[in-house]
Design brief:
357 residues; alpha+beta; eight-stranded antiparallel beta barrel; two-stranded antiparallel sheet; 13 helices; 12 strands; globular
Length: 357
Protein backbone atom coordinates (compact mmCIF):
# COMPACT_ATOMS: atom_id res chain seq x y z
CA UNK A 1 0.00 0.00 0.00
CA UNK A 2 1.39 3.42 -0.93
CA UNK A 3 2.16 5.41 2.19
CA UNK A 4 1.14 8.95 2.94
CA UNK A 5 4.26 10.91 2.01
CA UNK A 6 2.66 14.16 1.02
CA UNK A 7 0.72 15.02 -2.13
CA UNK A 8 1.59 12.90 -5.18
CA UNK A 9 3.67 14.54 -7.90
CA UNK A 10 1.76 16.19 -10.71
CA UNK A 11 4.55 15.83 -13.26
CA UNK A 12 7.79 13.93 -13.81
CA UNK A 13 10.99 15.88 -14.29
CA UNK A 14 13.48 14.74 -16.91
CA UNK A 15 15.38 12.56 -14.42
CA UNK A 16 12.22 10.75 -13.29
CA UNK A 17 11.19 10.21 -16.90
CA UNK A 18 14.59 8.77 -17.72
CA UNK A 19 14.44 6.53 -14.66
CA UNK A 20 11.01 5.18 -15.58
CA UNK A 21 12.10 4.58 -19.18
CA UNK A 22 15.21 2.77 -17.92
CA UNK A 23 13.12 0.52 -15.69
CA UNK A 24 10.71 -0.19 -18.54
CA UNK A 25 13.67 -1.61 -20.44
CA UNK A 26 15.46 -3.34 -17.55
CA UNK A 27 12.97 -3.58 -14.66
CA UNK A 28 15.14 -5.80 -12.43
CA UNK A 29 18.55 -4.29 -13.20
CA UNK A 30 20.68 -3.18 -10.27
CA UNK A 31 20.64 0.47 -9.25
CA UNK A 32 24.33 0.58 -10.16
CA UNK A 33 23.57 -0.37 -13.76
CA UNK A 34 20.55 1.92 -13.96
CA UNK A 35 22.56 4.81 -12.54
CA UNK A 36 25.48 4.22 -14.90
CA UNK A 37 23.18 4.41 -17.92
CA UNK A 38 21.63 7.65 -16.64
CA UNK A 39 24.88 9.25 -15.52
CA UNK A 40 23.82 9.18 -11.87
CA UNK A 41 24.99 7.31 -8.78
CA UNK A 42 23.10 4.28 -7.50
CA UNK A 43 22.00 6.01 -4.30
CA UNK A 44 20.38 8.85 -6.23
CA UNK A 45 18.35 6.62 -8.57
CA UNK A 46 17.30 4.33 -5.69
CA UNK A 47 16.14 7.35 -3.69
CA UNK A 48 14.27 8.75 -6.68
CA UNK A 49 12.52 5.42 -7.26
CA UNK A 50 11.59 5.09 -3.58
CA UNK A 51 9.99 8.53 -3.67
CA UNK A 52 7.96 7.67 -6.77
CA UNK A 53 6.75 4.34 -5.40
CA UNK A 54 5.85 5.76 -2.00
CA UNK A 55 3.67 8.36 -3.72
CA UNK A 56 2.01 5.70 -5.89
CA UNK A 57 3.36 7.52 -8.93
CA UNK A 58 5.25 4.54 -10.39
CA UNK A 59 5.57 0.83 -9.78
CA UNK A 60 6.88 -2.40 -11.26
CA UNK A 61 4.85 -5.60 -11.49
CA UNK A 62 4.98 -8.85 -13.43
CA UNK A 63 2.26 -10.86 -15.10
CA UNK A 64 1.98 -14.22 -16.86
CA UNK A 65 2.91 -13.90 -20.52
CA UNK A 66 0.67 -14.89 -23.46
CA UNK A 67 2.89 -17.91 -24.14
CA UNK A 68 1.26 -19.56 -21.11
CA UNK A 69 -2.01 -19.71 -22.99
CA UNK A 70 -0.25 -21.11 -26.03
CA UNK A 71 1.23 -23.87 -23.85
CA UNK A 72 -2.16 -24.71 -22.34
CA UNK A 73 -1.41 -23.25 -18.91
CA UNK A 74 -3.60 -20.18 -18.93
CA UNK A 75 -6.36 -18.33 -20.71
CA UNK A 76 -7.41 -14.70 -20.89
CA UNK A 77 -10.94 -13.38 -21.17
CA UNK A 78 -12.35 -9.89 -21.51
CA UNK A 79 -15.50 -9.70 -19.40
CA UNK A 80 -18.13 -6.95 -19.50
CA UNK A 81 -20.40 -6.52 -16.47
CA UNK A 82 -23.66 -4.63 -15.99
CA UNK A 83 -24.45 -3.59 -12.42
CA UNK A 84 -27.72 -2.88 -10.65
CA UNK A 85 -28.39 0.82 -9.94
CA UNK A 86 -26.33 2.04 -7.01
CA UNK A 87 -24.29 -1.17 -6.81
CA UNK A 88 -21.39 -0.47 -9.15
CA UNK A 89 -18.89 0.64 -6.53
CA UNK A 90 -19.51 -2.35 -4.29
CA UNK A 91 -19.32 -4.81 -7.17
CA UNK A 92 -16.10 -3.20 -8.38
CA UNK A 93 -14.57 -3.37 -4.91
CA UNK A 94 -15.30 -7.10 -4.69
CA UNK A 95 -13.94 -7.76 -8.18
CA UNK A 96 -10.79 -5.73 -7.53
CA UNK A 97 -9.98 -8.10 -4.67
CA UNK A 98 -10.22 -11.18 -6.91
CA UNK A 99 -6.85 -12.80 -7.76
CA UNK A 100 -8.13 -13.77 -11.22
CA UNK A 101 -8.94 -10.15 -12.19
CA UNK A 102 -5.85 -8.56 -13.72
CA UNK A 103 -7.54 -5.34 -14.84
CA UNK A 104 -10.80 -3.59 -14.02
CA UNK A 105 -12.25 -0.33 -15.31
CA UNK A 106 -15.46 1.64 -14.98
CA UNK A 107 -16.22 2.47 -18.60
CA UNK A 108 -18.61 4.38 -20.82
CA UNK A 109 -20.81 2.65 -23.36
CA UNK A 110 -23.21 -0.25 -23.06
CA UNK A 111 -21.61 -1.83 -19.97
CA UNK A 112 -20.55 -0.56 -16.56
CA UNK A 113 -17.35 -2.52 -15.90
CA UNK A 114 -14.74 -4.11 -18.12
CA UNK A 115 -12.44 -6.81 -16.72
CA UNK A 116 -9.39 -8.72 -17.91
CA UNK A 117 -9.70 -12.13 -16.26
CA UNK A 118 -7.02 -14.83 -16.19
CA UNK A 119 -7.57 -18.49 -15.38
CA UNK A 120 -5.70 -21.75 -15.77
CA UNK A 121 -7.94 -22.94 -18.62
CA UNK A 122 -11.47 -22.38 -19.99
CA UNK A 123 -12.93 -24.85 -17.49
CA UNK A 124 -11.37 -22.95 -14.57
CA UNK A 125 -12.65 -19.70 -16.07
CA UNK A 126 -16.14 -21.20 -16.18
CA UNK A 127 -15.87 -22.32 -12.55
CA UNK A 128 -14.80 -18.81 -11.48
CA UNK A 129 -17.67 -17.21 -13.38
CA UNK A 130 -20.34 -19.67 -12.18
CA UNK A 131 -19.11 -19.68 -8.55
CA UNK A 132 -17.38 -16.44 -7.53
CA UNK A 133 -18.83 -14.09 -10.11
CA UNK A 134 -22.33 -15.56 -9.93
CA UNK A 135 -22.28 -15.31 -6.12
CA UNK A 136 -21.64 -11.56 -6.29
CA UNK A 137 -24.81 -9.64 -5.52
CA UNK A 138 -25.48 -6.56 -7.64
CA UNK A 139 -24.60 -7.94 -11.09
CA UNK A 140 -27.33 -7.83 -13.72
CA UNK A 141 -25.57 -9.27 -16.78
CA UNK A 142 -22.20 -10.56 -17.93
CA UNK A 143 -20.71 -10.88 -21.41
CA UNK A 144 -17.48 -12.83 -21.93
CA UNK A 145 -15.03 -12.65 -24.84
CA UNK A 146 -12.34 -15.34 -24.83
CA UNK A 147 -8.98 -14.08 -26.07
CA UNK A 148 -7.01 -15.78 -28.78
CA UNK A 149 -3.43 -14.72 -29.61
CA UNK A 150 -2.23 -11.55 -27.88
CA UNK A 151 -0.30 -9.56 -30.48
CA UNK A 152 1.03 -6.87 -28.17
CA UNK A 153 0.57 -5.90 -24.52
CA UNK A 154 1.57 -3.24 -22.04
CA UNK A 155 5.03 -4.50 -21.02
CA UNK A 156 6.29 -3.31 -24.43
CA UNK A 157 5.05 0.27 -23.97
CA UNK A 158 7.79 2.87 -23.37
CA UNK A 159 8.29 6.48 -22.48
CA UNK A 160 10.74 8.23 -24.78
CA UNK A 161 13.23 9.85 -22.46
CA UNK A 162 16.50 8.05 -23.30
CA UNK A 163 18.79 8.19 -26.30
CA UNK A 164 19.80 5.21 -28.40
CA UNK A 165 23.07 4.58 -26.61
CA UNK A 166 21.36 4.54 -23.22
CA UNK A 167 18.67 2.19 -24.52
CA UNK A 168 21.27 -0.19 -25.93
CA UNK A 169 23.23 -0.14 -22.69
CA UNK A 170 20.15 -0.99 -20.63
CA UNK A 171 18.94 -3.64 -23.05
CA UNK A 172 22.00 -5.67 -22.10
CA UNK A 173 20.68 -5.79 -18.51
CA UNK A 174 17.07 -6.59 -19.46
CA UNK A 175 15.48 -9.99 -18.76
CA UNK A 176 16.48 -12.14 -21.70
CA UNK A 177 14.36 -14.59 -23.62
CA UNK A 178 16.15 -17.55 -25.13
CA UNK A 179 14.97 -19.69 -28.05
CA UNK A 180 16.78 -22.56 -26.31
CA UNK A 181 14.35 -22.34 -23.36
CA UNK A 182 10.95 -23.59 -24.52
CA UNK A 183 7.80 -23.15 -22.49
CA UNK A 184 7.56 -25.63 -19.65
CA UNK A 185 4.99 -26.70 -17.06
CA UNK A 186 5.06 -24.34 -14.08
CA UNK A 187 5.55 -26.06 -10.75
CA UNK A 188 4.23 -24.77 -7.43
CA UNK A 189 7.30 -22.62 -6.79
CA UNK A 190 7.00 -21.02 -10.23
CA UNK A 191 3.36 -20.22 -9.52
CA UNK A 192 4.19 -18.69 -6.13
CA UNK A 193 6.95 -16.60 -7.72
CA UNK A 194 4.65 -15.27 -10.46
CA UNK A 195 2.12 -14.28 -7.80
CA UNK A 196 4.75 -12.58 -5.60
CA UNK A 197 6.29 -10.71 -8.54
CA UNK A 198 2.85 -9.48 -9.64
CA UNK A 199 2.90 -7.27 -6.54
CA UNK A 200 6.54 -6.16 -6.66
CA UNK A 201 8.46 -6.86 -9.84
CA UNK A 202 11.71 -5.65 -8.25
CA UNK A 203 11.48 -7.86 -5.16
CA UNK A 204 14.94 -9.18 -4.31
CA UNK A 205 15.73 -12.87 -4.60
CA UNK A 206 16.13 -13.03 -0.85
CA UNK A 207 12.70 -11.46 -0.27
CA UNK A 208 11.16 -13.81 -2.82
CA UNK A 209 12.86 -16.75 -1.15
CA UNK A 210 11.41 -15.84 2.25
CA UNK A 211 7.96 -15.30 0.77
CA UNK A 212 7.89 -18.45 -1.39
CA UNK A 213 9.68 -20.90 0.88
CA UNK A 214 12.79 -21.65 -1.18
CA UNK A 215 16.48 -20.76 -1.17
CA UNK A 216 17.69 -17.57 -2.92
CA UNK A 217 19.75 -19.51 -5.47
CA UNK A 218 16.76 -21.70 -6.34
CA UNK A 219 14.56 -18.63 -6.67
CA UNK A 220 17.12 -16.89 -8.90
CA UNK A 221 17.26 -19.95 -11.15
CA UNK A 222 13.47 -20.26 -11.43
CA UNK A 223 12.95 -16.55 -12.11
CA UNK A 224 15.66 -16.58 -14.75
CA UNK A 225 14.08 -19.58 -16.45
CA UNK A 226 10.62 -17.92 -16.42
CA UNK A 227 11.99 -14.86 -18.20
CA UNK A 228 14.16 -16.91 -20.57
CA UNK A 229 11.13 -18.94 -21.69
CA UNK A 230 9.14 -15.68 -22.13
CA UNK A 231 6.57 -16.95 -19.63
CA UNK A 232 6.78 -13.88 -17.39
CA UNK A 233 6.64 -10.22 -18.41
CA UNK A 234 7.70 -7.32 -16.20
CA UNK A 235 6.35 -3.82 -16.61
CA UNK A 236 7.18 -0.46 -15.13
CA UNK A 237 4.14 1.81 -15.04
CA UNK A 238 3.47 5.39 -14.07
CA UNK A 239 0.28 6.97 -12.79
CA UNK A 240 -1.75 7.94 -15.81
CA UNK A 241 -1.75 11.72 -15.19
CA UNK A 242 2.07 11.55 -15.32
CA UNK A 243 2.27 9.57 -18.56
CA UNK A 244 0.96 12.35 -20.84
CA UNK A 245 -1.41 9.64 -22.16
CA UNK A 246 -4.16 9.77 -19.53
CA UNK A 247 -7.18 8.55 -21.53
CA UNK A 248 -7.81 4.83 -22.12
CA UNK A 249 -9.88 3.88 -25.16
CA UNK A 250 -11.20 0.35 -25.63
CA UNK A 251 -12.23 -0.73 -29.13
CA UNK A 252 -13.87 -3.89 -30.45
CA UNK A 253 -13.84 -4.65 -34.11
CA UNK A 254 -14.01 -7.11 -36.95
CA UNK A 255 -11.41 -7.94 -39.59
CA UNK A 256 -11.82 -10.41 -42.48
CA UNK A 257 -10.01 -13.55 -41.41
CA UNK A 258 -7.67 -13.47 -44.40
CA UNK A 259 -6.52 -9.95 -43.43
CA UNK A 260 -6.17 -10.45 -39.69
CA UNK A 261 -2.41 -11.03 -39.63
CA UNK A 262 -1.66 -7.95 -41.73
CA UNK A 263 -4.07 -5.76 -39.74
CA UNK A 264 -2.59 -6.79 -36.39
CA UNK A 265 0.90 -6.07 -37.73
CA UNK A 266 -0.15 -2.57 -38.74
CA UNK A 267 -2.09 -1.87 -35.55
CA UNK A 268 0.60 -3.02 -33.11
CA UNK A 269 3.00 -0.54 -34.69
CA UNK A 270 0.91 2.41 -33.53
CA UNK A 271 2.35 4.37 -30.63
CA UNK A 272 -0.97 4.57 -28.75
CA UNK A 273 -1.80 0.84 -28.78
CA UNK A 274 -1.22 -0.87 -25.43
CA UNK A 275 -3.08 -4.09 -26.14
CA UNK A 276 -4.04 -5.87 -29.34
CA UNK A 277 -5.62 -9.30 -29.02
CA UNK A 278 -7.64 -11.59 -31.21
CA UNK A 279 -10.94 -12.57 -29.62
CA UNK A 280 -13.30 -15.45 -30.19
CA UNK A 281 -16.72 -13.81 -30.14
CA UNK A 282 -18.91 -11.74 -32.44
CA UNK A 283 -15.85 -9.48 -32.68
CA UNK A 284 -12.47 -10.88 -33.62
CA UNK A 285 -10.15 -8.07 -32.51
CA UNK A 286 -9.85 -6.08 -29.29
CA UNK A 287 -7.67 -2.98 -28.90
CA UNK A 288 -6.78 -0.83 -25.92
CA UNK A 289 -5.09 2.49 -26.64
CA UNK A 290 -3.74 5.33 -24.53
CA UNK A 291 -4.37 8.78 -25.96
CA UNK A 292 -3.66 12.32 -24.81
CA UNK A 293 -7.25 13.60 -24.56
CA UNK A 294 -10.86 12.80 -25.34
CA UNK A 295 -10.51 14.79 -28.57
CA UNK A 296 -7.45 12.71 -29.43
CA UNK A 297 -9.52 9.54 -29.00
CA UNK A 298 -11.46 10.43 -32.13
CA UNK A 299 -8.29 11.45 -33.96
CA UNK A 300 -6.77 8.11 -33.02
CA UNK A 301 -9.69 6.27 -34.56
CA UNK A 302 -9.25 8.27 -37.77
CA UNK A 303 -5.56 7.31 -37.88
CA UNK A 304 -6.50 3.72 -37.11
CA UNK A 305 -8.90 3.65 -40.08
CA UNK A 306 -6.20 5.05 -42.35
CA UNK A 307 -3.64 2.51 -41.16
CA UNK A 308 -5.96 -0.50 -41.11
CA UNK A 309 -8.91 0.11 -43.48
CA UNK A 310 -9.91 -3.57 -43.22
CA UNK A 311 -10.77 -3.09 -39.55
CA UNK A 312 -14.38 -2.18 -38.81
CA UNK A 313 -14.80 -0.80 -35.28
CA UNK A 314 -18.12 -2.00 -33.89
CA UNK A 315 -17.96 -0.89 -30.25
CA UNK A 316 -15.95 1.66 -28.29
CA UNK A 317 -15.64 2.75 -24.68
CA UNK A 318 -13.57 5.14 -22.59
CA UNK A 319 -12.32 4.24 -19.13
CA UNK A 320 -13.77 6.68 -16.60
CA UNK A 321 -11.79 5.08 -13.75
CA UNK A 322 -9.17 2.38 -14.33
CA UNK A 323 -9.56 0.78 -10.89
CA UNK A 324 -7.09 -2.07 -11.28
CA UNK A 325 -4.23 -2.40 -13.73
CA UNK A 326 -1.91 -5.39 -13.90
CA UNK A 327 -3.07 -6.39 -10.42
CA UNK A 328 -2.31 -2.92 -9.01
CA UNK A 329 -5.13 -1.01 -7.32
CA UNK A 330 -5.54 2.61 -8.42
CA UNK A 331 -7.36 5.59 -6.98
CA UNK A 332 -9.68 7.77 -9.04
CA UNK A 333 -6.75 9.83 -10.33
CA UNK A 334 -4.72 6.78 -11.38
CA UNK A 335 -2.18 6.60 -8.54
CA UNK A 336 -1.32 3.23 -7.02
CA UNK A 337 -2.86 2.56 -3.60
CA UNK A 338 -2.15 -1.16 -3.24
CA UNK A 339 -2.21 -4.48 -5.07
CA UNK A 340 -4.06 -7.77 -5.24
CA UNK A 341 -1.64 -10.64 -6.03
CA UNK A 342 -2.49 -12.32 -9.32
CA UNK A 343 -3.14 -16.06 -9.07
CA UNK A 344 -4.66 -17.52 -12.20
CA UNK A 345 -4.18 -20.99 -10.68
CA UNK A 346 -6.44 -20.29 -7.69
CA UNK A 347 -9.67 -22.26 -7.55
CA UNK A 348 -13.00 -20.47 -7.01
CA UNK A 349 -13.97 -19.90 -3.39
CA UNK A 350 -17.71 -19.98 -3.99
CA UNK A 351 -18.13 -17.36 -1.24
CA UNK A 352 -20.96 -14.97 -1.83
CA UNK A 353 -20.29 -11.25 -1.71
CA UNK A 354 -22.96 -8.61 -1.34
CA UNK A 355 -21.58 -5.99 -3.65
CA UNK A 356 -22.84 -3.25 -1.34
CA UNK A 357 -20.60 -0.25 -1.30
Amino acid sequence: MAQDSGPPPRSLDHVDQALVHALQIAPRASWTRIGAALGLDAVTVARRWHRLTEAGAAWISCHPAPVLAASGQGCLAFVEVDCAPGRLRGVARALAAAPHVAALSHVTGDHDLQLNVMARDPAALSRWMTHDLAALDGILAVRTHLAGPVHTEGSRWRLRALDRSQIARLAAAAPRTSPDTPAFTLDELDQRLVTALSVDGRATYRALAEQCGAGPDTVRRHVGRLFAADMLHARCEVARPLSEWPVTVSLWGHVPAARLREVTRRVTGMREVRLCASVISRHNLHLVAWVRSLDDAQRFEVRLAERAPDLTVTERAVALWPMKHGGQLLDEEGYRIGATPLALWAEPTGRAATGHG
